[in-house]
Amino acid sequence: MSVHIIAILVLVAAFVIATVLPINLGALSLVAAFVIGSLVLAGPPDDVANKIFADFPGNLFVILVGVTLLFAIARANGTVDWLVHLAVRGVRGRIALIPWIMFGVTAVLTASGAVVPAAVAIIAPVGLSFAARHRINPVLMGLSIINGASAGGFSPLAIFGVITNGVVAKSNLPGSPLTLFLGSLFFNVLLNVVMFVIFGGRELLGRVAELEPVVAEVSPGGAPGAARAQTTGATGAGFGEPEHPPVTTLDLNRVLTLVVLTALAVGAMAFRLDVGLLAVTAAVLLSLLAPNTYKGAVAQVAWPTVLLVCGIVTYVNLLQEIGTIKFLGGLVATIGVPLLAALVICYIGAGVSAFASTTGILGALIPLAVPFLLAGHVGAVGLITALAISASVVDSSPFSTSGALVAANAPEDRREYVYRRLMAWGFSMVVVAPPITWLLLVVPGWLGG
N or C terminus: which one in the chain shows less Cβ crowding within 10 Å? Predict the structure, then answer.
């Protein structure tokens, strides 16, 4: 049996075990990477281990830890509460509009050039805190943010769009940046409408949040848990503190937090600095200014989620390193029916991207499809657009960076629920997105380029 088939079966077995038994899938995946790597990679044990560790997603680890650490601090001192209150006032308390506002803001950020994980990392903590306070399904809020990021992700200025259009041009294939962008935008808008209905959006219609100001006495540390007010609110996110009302005023700690959050956004979007390292830097600076107030922040990092995501991504990266993904792509060339081969390519893109970097998948699968596309049996623009959409809408999987950020920033008591719903939704996208985009964009043959 081919080592590539064995590697895929091991991945399936890890999923089954983690589903049946209470064992972290990330830990199982690291064991799988050790076993498969030892069998396939050549060299002494130390060299093999180094090659396996080379596939560990250090950047993703830092993003997850840095962002959740920073927003644990922002929640503890009331900054997130203040932002949520500001959002409520901005839509005059209409709760149903907030997920769509988050969708639109994230789409604008990514369409303007922000890296998708950076945009999700900035918006998700605020959106999910709003969801917790106003009884919105956190999955509804999280998917609105992820879908918004994908909606804008293929603009000619966006990182996904730049990479896809660049690979198409380099491969001498016909391309249409506008078709790519609009196709992704419309698909994600329609997808978000469906998701909005499925996850309780209709129940939000007509609901209006209270806008009355809260009179709060805040402790010197700035944590809202010590507040006394005329009205009561939802459970807060401080470190082991009691329930507290919404925060509607700014103090020194909140102003400083807003400053570093703004600096993070500018650094990540305008200067393309690493969002994870920026978030860690911001968290450390705030901790230095108030070390006793934020001493419990590190414990709020979603460590089980970090282990799960980094473990599975390490294994999938190893599969790419040993050629398993290329092996799957090569199988497509043996399919004698062009339309069927096009559908298989979309399925491979969706399936692999659910566990790995969408950026890397787009850069890898389009070149694999070049000989197939140059033959002219299917429209290049249609297939590339279908592949791009199929590979990006699965970012809602908790094993992709965007999905992982949403799961990590969900309230602790609902994190398992969010993780399982994101996994179900993400893998449903693996199943349904390829045939839908294939039927709409490839089969008619009207997007040949």
Answer: N
Give the pLDDT mean for 348-353. 86
What is the rounded distance in angstroms from the CA atom of residue 1 to the CA atom of residue 4? Answer: 8
Instruction: Measure the CA–CA gap between 198 and 182, rounded to whole angstroms.
Output: 24
* Three-state DSSP class for residue 208: strand
Distance CA 195, CA 197 (A): 5
Residue 134 near residue 92 (C-beta atoms within 8 A): no
Question: Measured between alpha carbons, how far is residue 220 from residues 253, 291, 292 in Å?
Answer: 9, 13, 11
69-79 mean pLDDT: 86
Of the chain, the percentage scoring pLDDT greater than 70 comes to 88
Using the Cα atoms of residue 411, residue 416, residue 417 and residue 423 in order, give the sign of their dihedral.
positive
* Closest to 405 measured CA to CA, from 171, 44, 126: 126
* Ranges assigned E (strand) in 238-315: none
Region 202-231: what's the mean pLDDT? 52
Could you give the CA distance from residue 328 to residue 181 in angstroms, rounded to a whole number? 27
Extended beta strands in 2-105, E state: none
Secondary structure string (H, E, C) spanning 145-187: HHHHHHHHCCCCCCHHHHHHHHHHHHCCCCCCHHHHHHHHHHH
* 449 closest CA partner among 134, 187, 174: 174
Count of alpha carbons within 13 angstroms of residue 22, beta-carbon side: 1
